[in-house]
Amino acid sequence: MKMRNPPVNSLSLEFLTELLISLEKLESDKAFHAIILTSDCPGIFSAGLDLMEMCGRDPTHYAEYWKAVQELWLRFYLSHLVVISAINGVNAAGGCLLALSCDYRVLADNPKYAMGLNETLLGIIAPFWFKDTLVNTVGHRTAERALQLGLLFPPAEALQVGMVDKVVPEDQVLSAARSELAQWLAIPGHARQLTKSLMRKPTADRLLKERDADIQNFVRFISRDAIQKALRVYLEKLKQKKT
Ligand SMILES: CC/C=C\C/C=C\C/C=C\C/C=C/C(=O)SCCNC(=O)CCNC(=O)[C@H](O)C(C)(C)COP(=O)(O)OP(=O)(O)OC[C@H]1O[C@@H](n2cnc3c(N)ncnc32)[C@H](O)[C@@H]1OP(=O)(O)O
């Protein structure tokens, strides 16, 4: 699955919906057993959630957007398919969440390709299920430091803290993901799938039990004047970079 939403693969409502439909199609076709998730945007895996969806819109839109973000995470996190990410670019916040929801992560060895949950740098907070997904991957202490400081880890550090499983030269990221896949596909499917569910269901259940409350919290939080201002300032900084 090659993500293509130029220029930065930001996860707009339309793009989230496309990803969700693609994933559902692959999951319902018995011929498919695995997905390699990668990017078609040079140098960028994903810039994360689309800030334009969270800025200057109305509460109904925020609720619809957040429901789609929840849906995509639940679907990826609990997918019965083997999902491996071949991370071939910088990967921030919501994009990093997608990669963390995969079963295995290969990252291209380029110091520009940092990844992490950098929400605090925007003046916002990673929701509890983003946090839980990170804790499940790197452990509590590393996650606490990474989340508070909004750290984006370059490849060697991402590997060292366990945020990715392998770092390879840029031209080998897809072939390394394919080689890894062979090992996962050699395991009897039902046993692997049930084990994945055993490991992940408690984390997913937390959100499933609180989905509506989580949407309401998000809408309340994102609608605040101070948060809207912080997001506008961040977007402005991104644009000013060019001048
Ligand atoms: C109580 C609590 C309850 C609930 C929790 C509440 C809130 C939590 C909510 C949400 C969690 C948020 C998750 C996120 O994912 S937020 C997004 C975080 N992403 C980033 O910080 C990355 C920002 N982008 C960049 O750093 C760079 O763009 C990047 C390194 C990816 C690429 O750099 P490059 O120089 O190649 O391109 P740019 O010129 O910067 O960008 C091109 C173009 O794209 C626009 N852009 C970039 N990122 C985004 C984005 N995430 N959303 C929308 N648009 C984006 C950028 O402005 C440029 O636009 P233009 O100038 O018009 O061409």
From TrEMBL:
Key enzyme of fatty acid beta-oxidation. Able to isomerize both 3-cis (3Z) and 3-trans (3E) double bonds into the 2-trans (2E) form in a range of enoyl-CoA species, with a preference for (3Z)-enoyl-CoAs over (3E)-enoyl-CoAs. The catalytic efficiency of this enzyme is not affected by the fatty acyl chain length. It comes from Enhydra lutris kenyoni. It holds the Pfam family ECH_1. Keywords: Acetylation, Fatty acid metabolism, Isomerase, Lipid metabolism, Mitochondrion, Transit peptide. Homotrimer. PANTHER family: ENOYL-COA DELTA ISOMERASE 1, MITOCHONDRIAL, ENOYL-COA HYDRATASE-RELATED. This is Enoyl-CoA delta isomerase 1, mitochondrial. It comes from the Eukaryota. GO terms for biological process: fatty acid beta-oxidation. GO terms for cellular component: mitochondrial matrix. Belongs to the enoyl-CoA hydratase/isomerase family. Pathway: Lipid metabolism; fatty acid beta-oxidation. It is found in: Mitochondrion matrix. It catalyses: (3Z)-hexenoyl-CoA = (2E)-hexenoyl-CoA; (2E)-tetradecenoyl-CoA = (3Z)-tetradecenoyl-CoA; (3Z)-octenoyl-CoA = (2E)-octenoyl-CoA; (3Z)-dodecenoyl-CoA = (2E)-dodecenoyl-CoA. Gene3D superfamilies: 2-enoyl-CoA Hydratase, Chain A, domain 1, 6.10.250.170. Its EC number is 5.3.3.8. The gene is LOC111156125.
